[in-house]
Amino acid sequence: MAETTDDRLRLLIERVERLEEEKKGISDDIRDAYAEGKAVGYDTKIMRQIVRLRKMNPDDRREMEIILETYKAALGIE
To answer: Among positive and negative, which fits the CA dihedral 25, 26, 27, 28?
Structure first.
């Protein structure tokens, strides 16, 4: 029983290690894509914001934009 548990734990740990390595590779690729965008003149902060907005549900995004506009109006911004 203990040997089976040890094997399972080892396999899980190895799987996590592989996934962490893949995650690092993907993070490097994402960083490179932003660097490429910056090199051709795009604003990387805006690029990141657009990526976040595109991930959002359209209804949630509209609600956020309405609230943002309300706050801006209350503060006299724009």
So the answer is: positive
